[in-house]
Amino acid sequence: MINEYFGAHMTSLYVVYDDRHRLHRVASGYHPERPERIDIAMSSLRSSSAWSRIIIKNTFEPDPGVLEKIHDTQYIELIKRLSEKEISFIDPDTYVSKGTYDIALRFTTTTWRVAKTVFREGGLWLILSRPPGHHAGRYGVAMNAPTQGFCIFNHAAAAALSVIEERGRVAIIDFDAHHGNGTQEILWEEPRALHIDIHQEGIYPGTGYIDDLGGGEAEGTKINIPLEAGSGDGVYKWVLEKIIKNLIDRFRPDVIVVSAGFDAYRGEPITSLDATENTYALYGAYLSRLYEEKRVRGVVAILEGGYDIGLRLGLRAFVEGLLRVRDEPDVRIEGPPEDLRRDLVSVLKEYWGIEI
Prior knowledge:
By secondary structure, the protein is an alpha/beta fold. 38% of the residues lie in helices and 14% in strands. The two termini are 32 Å apart.
């Protein structure tokens, strides 16, 4: 049965949707990062038993000053200038169309303000942002990646820096199948930001190694978990039980920011991981417990990747787990390969005193 405690309290989820996301589009042909992605996401949410607990919110009015806290001024001006044209590709993956600057700025501003609201007042939020952001670094391309991977402005970094500006501590959990190199670069020397990144090994952007741990006083706060192709629910549960829960217990963040990519789902077109609804329901349920037990003030989840079935099924499972309208799945833990487990155990013991 669904947990009666959560049902009685009727926790709501605020979902930010803005139809102006359609301004960001290619003129013709197919691109994976397309407006239809949000149509899929909204259709999935409407079909869910969680829909009655979802409150739709629009974006806030854009504030260009927010961008300067995250990105270099010259990069911001480049995107603004290119957005005056009909369409431009800034690299082989990433395009800018007329309106891209405006809608990307709206979502970054919104994420910044939502994070402040969550820090001050609490709450659960999901921001259906386009274009995505976790590959966008301070100057655009981050950590020597080949491209910006469809991303323009970094919403997750905006949320994290907003909480830090409030003198809070923030944990970023990035379960997109691709490493969040932009977020990690921006927060590299920030000890008040714990960044846990679960991604597929050996694919774009070619970053996110276990020994990439952050710099200066932040060394040890950037935790990378590169999974081999084919890793599924059992491995994701191992990561949750052995790594994420232990780190959150030690770090004790005020707010959790989720870079919520759903391209690790089995059958997604540009990755080779094997997560199913069970993974996303588990992660959603864990975050829900943290919130209901008042161990964090709230959660800000930001849409990153997910291009087909992951958006249809993974997003819905995550939200249903977050709102506890789905029974928590019984998943058998399956440890990762011995070399990965050994290296992660070493990092956790050295920097956090965690024995697993």
